[in-house]
Amino acid sequence: MQIYRSEVMGYCRGVSGVISLAQTCIDMAAEKGLPAYSIGWFIHNPTVVQRFVSQGMIHIDGPAGIPPGVALVRAHGISDPLRKEFIDAGFILIDGTCGTVAHSQQLVRMCRKDQHVVIVGLRTHSEVVALSSVFDDEGNIVPVSVVETTGDIDKLKAFSTSQFKVVVQTTFDSAQFSTIMEELYFRYPDTILANRLCPSTKRRHDALLEMLKVVDAVLVIGGKISANTTALARLVESRKVPVWHIENEREIPEEIYSFNHVGVTAGTSTPEEDIDAIIRTLEEKSI
Ligand code: SF4
Prior knowledge:
Elements: E1 2-5, H1 13-32, E2 36-39, H2 46-53, E3 58-60, E4 70-73, H3 80-88, E5 92-95, H4 99-109, E6 115-120, H5 126-131, E7 144-147, E8 163-168, H6 174-187, E9 192-193, H7 199-211, E10 217-221, H8 227-238, E11 243-246, E12 261-266, H9 272-285
Parallel strand pairs: 1-12, 2-3, 2-4, 4-5, 6-7, 6-8, 8-9, 10-11, 10-12
Helix pairs in contact: 7-8
Bound molecules: iron/sulfur cluster (SF4).
């Protein structure tokens, strides 16, 4: 079996940044004699998160009933009301929000009165949750509609007198995004697109497409709840190439050994160690 590594895979800038801030959070908490918290999962990769949990980091969703401490804001950001709740409750926040996501939140914040924000993304994804609850200059929540599929566009009828300002989840599936934008422009030609998919995601997609020219099966490595990792797997599926989305070497499927050219790629929150461990196992078992 010949193994191909995608030319671009693994950690993006935002993930590297929040991982180093996770350490800052733990160190600062220890120095001040306070608990260290992570607000939600700071990245969507269980192995990395576990490394910090074993150093004492505690996951919390909100400040209610919890002793104040030093809390890390995840790479996908948190909503403005939740941020305020933490600050009002006396927590020290270490802001790990990726700059690209923070910029998207700012675009929502700056929405004009004659516009309506349409967030294209997965309703339950933490980045979309953060974008859906942003304060304007007067401290009011900016109203938004979330569009996950073209079917959701029907629900925008109620706002047809406004111009739609689209803010896309930075890691949303690119094919699905194009389909939704085509439909939006068709029905509402004045629609404006305020941001783009994250270039880190695009670079990984382009490298994967290049690799698909020479492989006959693919392993996509990363957290099962990671949207960008899942999007990589869906991209392979769309090209009718067999694909498995796995988190670690124990999940390598036996069927993979029946292919001669196997490609490996990984999501933006997948550590190099996980990729190396899987490639090592493939090499050892395919001799
Ligand atoms: S994928 Fe892009 S937007 Fe998301 S954390 Fe990484 S750099 Fe930031």
